[in-house]
Design brief:
Length: 343
């Protein structure tokens, strides 16, 4: 009897100890994420969160893959190939207008200034969008700036049909521009600037015609998540954003360590150039005045509504998505935790 009682007591103690530990399921929630682009300096935000164990502390096992364009992240998440993407909010608006039932939703906006541009050689006769008419512009098929070109044409009052558009492999963009094979190339300012620098092109050899200078005050890249993930595991979405936000805060404090996290994944990067790219991204693509009030990650609903209207009108989209279809603030960390000063 005594032996049986002891065995029962030990089993009860073991059960209590097991109950006190995190469940295996919560510790092994696997998430697949696709980036906007290749492993470069600004991707350090995500890798710092991974390297410092912030995702793991939230019970998440996150796999982060390279991307092939900000616009491409949207259909990849919508199709279920990925749970999470770092993609262009404007591509999401277009997708939601056409396929609302399948569209992902943005939950944390990181690039809140419009980085979209057409780069030309410094000595090019192209000075304004009107000068694109009769010229050849090139870009990768999934490039965010290329996708938004019809909206720029409408905003800047130029005739898109008079512009010849050609597609190219992303890694050939800057070379084709400098060789004169195209008159201009689509892209993000800092992506083009630093990719050109890596092939020996100096800043004063390129000029940028920026969409934001022609009435397009748009948001850009955001964390987007699938409808399936939102429905089945909303706590995983919240945990991911808590971890990422910590990674952002740490990266802003120590950019060198952030770029070093990228170099662990891609040892061939030039860390000095990628550090410069990181700093330029923070200052040029993330540092919108509104974050001093609402914090990085959140949005101004009025500004987002204006962006939606611009895209629906310019692209002749079949419906106008509500702002709530595009951005859901309910998963964000507390406003007090969101960065309100980036440098």
């Amino acid at each position: 009897m005594r032996l049986a009682s002891l065995r029962t007591a030990l089993m009860a103690a073991a059960a209590l100890a097991a109950a006190a530990l995190p469940s295996a399921a919560s510790a092994e929630t696997k998430l697949k994420m696709v980036l906007n682009w290749k492993y470069q300096g600004p991707q350090g935000f995500f890798f710092v969160a991974q390297d410092k164990g912030y995702f793991k502390a939230e019970g998440l096992d996150v796999t982060i893959d390279q991307g092939d364009g900000s616009a491409a992240a949207v259909p990849k998440v919508a199709s279920g190939a990925y749970d999470i993407g770092f993609g262009d909010l404007n591509a999401l608006i277009e997708f939601a207008a056409k396929k609302p039932e399948e569209a992902p939703v943005a939950v944390y906006v990181m690039f809140n200034r419009p980085p979209f541009t057409v780069a030309v050689k410094a000595d090019s006769p192209i000075k304004t969008p009107k000068d694109f008419e009769g010229k050849t512009l090139g870009g990768a098929a999934n490039d965010g700036a290329l996708k938004l070109f019809p909206a720029l044409c409408k905003s800047a009052k130029i005739d898109c049909t008079k512009v010849n558009i050609t597609n190219m492999a992303p890694n050939l963009r800057e070379q084709m521009l400098m060789r004169g094979q195209v008159d201009g190339v689509f892209g993000y300012v800092n992506t083009i600037r630093f990719s050109a620098k890596l092939i020996g092109v100096k800043d004063d050899q390129i000029r940028f015609i920026n969409y934001g200078d022609y009435g397009m005050d748009l948001y850009s890249n955001a964390i987007i998540v699938s409808k399936k993930l939102v429905k089945e595991n909303p706590e995983a979405v919240k945990g991911f954003l808590r971890a990422l936000n910590k990674g952002v805060v740490e990266s802003l404090k120590d950019p060198k360590a952030s770029v070093a996290s990228v170099a662990k994944r891609e040892p061939l990067i030039k860390t000095d150039v990628e550090l410069e790219r990181f700093d330029a991204t923070v200052k040029d693509e993330m540092n919108h005045p509104e974050i001093a009030k609402i914090g990085l990650g959140s949005i101004d609903p009025t500004r987002l509504k204006t962006a939606i209207d611009i895209l629906v009108d310019a692209n002749g989209l079949p419906r106008t998505p509500a702002t709530s279809e595009i951005f859901d603030p309910s998963f964000l960390p507390p406003a007090s935790d969101l960065p309100k000063k980036l440098f």
